[in-house]
Amino acid sequence: MPSYEEVRYHFNHHDPFARHMGIELLEVGPEHGVAIMPLDERHRNGMGHAHGGAIFALVDMTFATVSNAAGLYCVNAQTNISYLEPGRIGPLRGEARKIRSGRNLGTYDVRITDSDGTLVAIATVTGFMTKYPIQQKDA
Q1: Residues 65 and 74: beta-carbon distance below 8 Å
Q2: What number of H helices and E strands is found in the chain?
Q3: In terms of pLDDT, which residue wins out, 1 or 63?
Q4: Number of domains in the chain
């Protein structure tokens, strides 16, 4: 199985959508993980705040920091997200914590803040653990 650093490297270098959004996984671990995303024009809605879709993308990748830490792909099966405040100041930061994990399903808490510490969104994510190992690819 890959190390936490190898899982972090894999997603940072081999996930084209995350790269397009500028999302970077900073910490990968079995209980807690962190990801960040810049807040530039490609992430903003018509009012100039963080777009809900961009926030959701950060939630999904932050969920990956914990759910994939065991070295097997875990995919998002369901997300319940509450948008609390507009994200105004970047970068946005996501922190994920494992609530519970079973043989096939896990539940994770994800919180998104902007750089002034404002809580932008909270989400509960249910993930489905596949049997597919994360494959290391050449950089």
Answers
A1: no
A2: 3, 6
A3: 63
A4: 1
Q: Which of left, alpha, beta for 48 (phi over 0: left; psi -120 to 50: alpha)?
A: left
138 lies in some domain = no
Residue 9 amino acid letter: Y
Which amino acid is it at 81?
A: I
Any idea what the CATH number is for the domain that residue 109 is in?
A: 3.10.129.10
User: DSSP assignment, residue 87?
Assistant: -
Altogether, the residues listed in the chain come to a count of 139
CB 36 within 8 A of CB 93: yes
pLDDT, tens digit, 9 for 90 and up, residues 81-113: 999 999 999 999 999 999 999 999 999 999 999
Sorting pLDDT into bands at 50, 70 and 90, what band is 138?
low
Whether the Cβ atoms of residue 49 and residue 82 lie closer than 8 Å to each other: no
**Tokens at 23, concatenated:** 């999302």
Neighbouring residues of 42: CB distance < 8 A, sequence distance ≥ 6: 21, 22, 54
Closest CA to 76 of 88, 58, 49, 91: 58
Q: Residue 34's domain spans which residues?
A: 4-133
| Angstrom distance (rounded) from CA 82 to CA 132 | 31
